[in-house]
Structure formats: C-alpha cells, structure tokens
Amino acid sequence: MNIGNIALGEQPLFLAPMENVTDASFRYICKEFGADMLYTEFVSSDGLIRDATKTLAKLVLYDYERPIGIQIYGHIPEAMVEAAQRSEAANPDLIDINFGCPVNKIAKRGAGSGMMREPDKMVKITADVVKAVKVPVTVKTRLGWDEDSKIIVELAERLQDAGIAALTIHGRTRCQMYKGSADWTLIGEVKHNPRMKIPIIGNGDITTPDEAKAAFDRYGVDAIMVGRASFGHPWIFKEIKHYLQTGEYLAPMTVEEKVDLAKKHLARSIEIKGERVGVLEMRRHLSCYFKGLNNFKETRLKLVTLNDPTELFATLDYVKNNWQ
What we know:
Elements (H helix, E strand, L loop, with lengths): L1 E2 L2 E2 L5 E3 L8 H9 L5 E7 H5 L3 H5 L10 E6 L3 H12 L5 E6 L4 H4 L11 H14 L4 E6 L9 H10 L4 E5 L14 H7 L8 E4 L5 H11 L3 E4 L9 H11 L8 H19 L1 H15 L7 H7 L5 H14 L2
Parallel strand pairs: 3-10, 4-5, 5-6, 6-7, 7-8, 8-9, 9-10
Antiparallel strand pairs: 1-2
Helix pairs in contact: 1-11, 4-6, 9-10, 11-12, 11-14
C-alpha cells in the first residue's frame, strides 16, 4: 500500500491521532511496537495561525517517527490553507484533515465531524488544502452526521476528486460519538466502489488481533487504524502483526515487561518535555499500563500523584518487585 510516494507495505497498521494521547513520547513507544504510520495530536488551524505556543509544540517531529502526518482541523477555509502551509514547513510526510472528531467544542462550531453537515464546504476546504501544499493530503472522517445522513459513499468519491491521497473512515456517525458499535459495512462499500482508486483505511473498535484480521478479510481495507485500544496497551500493534503473520496470539506482557516499558515511556516524556510537564502528562498513561492488577489502588494513586521522577521510578520498581 502506498500513500502518494510513501510505501507502507501490506496490511499496515496506523496509530490514530488522539488529543492528549499521541504526543511524541507515546508515538515513540508505538513506533517501537510496529505502528507503520503515526500522526500528531490534533492541530488547531486557528491556534496555528495565531502562533499559540501549545499548538506550535505539536509540530515538532522526529526522524525516527517517519512516516508521520500532521493532522489539522478547523472550519474556516483560509485558516485551514494557512495552517496546512505552516504544517508543511515542519516537514511531515503528509497532512491529514480531521473531519471526524465528534467532541462538542469542535463539532458544534463546524469543525471536525461538524463538517459532515456541510459536505460542500468540506470538499472545498479539502481541495483548497490539496492545492496549497506539495505533500500528500489525506482525510479522516465518519459515516455521516446521524443515522439519517450516512453520506460517506458519495462523499468519499467527492473527496477523492478533490485530490486526497487516502481516506480514513471511522465506522460511526457523529451523533454516536464513541457509543454503540462501529459499522464497517459502509467502510467496505466505499472500498469496493469501483470508482475509488485511493487507499481506504478502516477505523473503529479494533481492540484485538482477530478483530483486525477480520476487518482486513471481510471489508478489504488497505490499512487499519487503531485508536483507543492502544491507550495503555501500545503493544497491540505487535500483537496484531504477529497474529496476521502466524495466526497465533503472542504471550501476554508480564508485569516486569510493562514496568520496563512504563519506565522507558516516562524517561522519554521527561526528555522531551522536561520533568514537570513530562511527569504530569505521563499520569494518564501510567494509570492504564497496569489495569487488572489486584490490590493496586494505593499504588496506582501514587503513580498519578507523585511529582518527583526519582520517586516515580522507585514506585515502578516497587510494582515490578511486588506483582507478578
């Protein structure tokens, strides 16, 4: 599978862009476990053209992450074009347009999946961005706004005609948010539409290796994007690849392996963001790495409240020595 001139091999696995999750340290870990394509957190077009410090920080990329895309969102065509051009200056492998985020603060002002209510505007923004940059432009979107407006089959053709190099489809409507089950049937319909020539990436409810294989086999998608299932479980990419290649499950990660991974992740977070921010932003990950351990409440509380890195590393060693 190729996106433009980016060769991704057969049945590649993508890490979904997730706000407050897919920062550089988490991407580093997912890449080590075999994620073939990475994306930044959401980059606000408004924040980028205002030179907002937090937004600009999201444009810092590392060579070991490649291929990597910068994902932008917004609802004003001129701002999206300028944001795409500024993003291109950071030297990503591609630019992805977020027409899929369902959260109220984004969708209700017409950005993200809010754009599903204005498909003509969505297509115009896409065409304008494609013309404004030289790197491949891709889109991530949903099936439609609600159950009565699942427009993705026709919309996919229009986005392809606008010049995008690949399309990612989350198998829910905006009104579903993340509730219910993802409907892959329309993703498969887009993929099997003879008019469609670009790669189609499927997204939604891929939580196990056999679900990934079933998605490839049943719907014929070119790639799969894994989102929430990677949070606290970044080794899912390795598990899926092993299953696709052998038909067998990998042995579960041991507590010792999880501790070593958490320490590596924490060290990378501190290296990139400094001690204070690096520790604070690791809390959401440390709270998830050790799900399911018995009698872990008190230790988990330490992992998400300690501020001193030395104490935090010592607590992780305590986990290794006291849980098997």
